[in-house]
Amino acid sequence: DVQLAESGGGSVQAGGSLKLSCTLSGTTHTRRCMGWFRQAPRKEREGVADIDADGTASYEDSAKGRFTISKDDDKDILFLDMNDLTPEDTAMYYCAADGADFCWIGFPNQFAYWGQGTQVTVS
């Protein structure tokens, strides 16, 4: 079974930084696209960033310039570097993956595999 496990969440003050990690295991796909999503209390899930199999990244508007998505294919790890955090970034953050070369956070149903989430709280 494919499994995703997020880590790196926590509590920080506004203006601080966090680096989330997502470890992928059990996959037979040599190429994959991955993404980060988040869901705040009483809000719908929203996409944050995605990265295609070739490394091309895209971001939700509020993440541009503050967040960086990256991946280490050799170690099957996805990262999200988050800087200049604000209370509006408080949410449960989820990583997701799919065996396709290309994916888009605007179409979350494309992602076949999801992690359990890691909480980010900004005060």
Description:
The chain has 123 residues and is mainly β. 0% of the residues lie in helices and 48% in strands. It is built from no helices and eleven strands. The strands form two sheets. Strands 2, 4, 5, 6, 9, 10 and 11 form a seven-stranded mixed beta sheet that branches. A four-stranded antiparallel beta sheet has the order 1-3-8-7, with no helix packed on it. The radius of gyration is 13 Å and the shape is globular. The model has no long low-confidence stretch (mean pLDDT 94).
What structural category characterises the helix and strand content? Answer: mainly beta
Helix content: under 10%
How many DSSP-defined strands? 11
Average pLDDT works out at: 94
Largest sheet: 7 strands, mixed
Which spans have pLDDT < 50 for at least 5 consecutive residues? none
Strand proportion, as a percent range, falls in over 45%
Rg result: 13 Å
The helix count comes to 0
Q: Can you tell me the overall shape?
A: globular
Please trace the helix and strand order, writing H or E for each element.
Answer: EEEEEEEEEEE
Instruction: Determine the N-to-C terminus distance.
Output: 37 Å
Short description:
The chain is mostly beta strands and 123 residues long. The protein is built from no helices and 11 strands. Strand 7 and strand 8 form a beta hairpin.
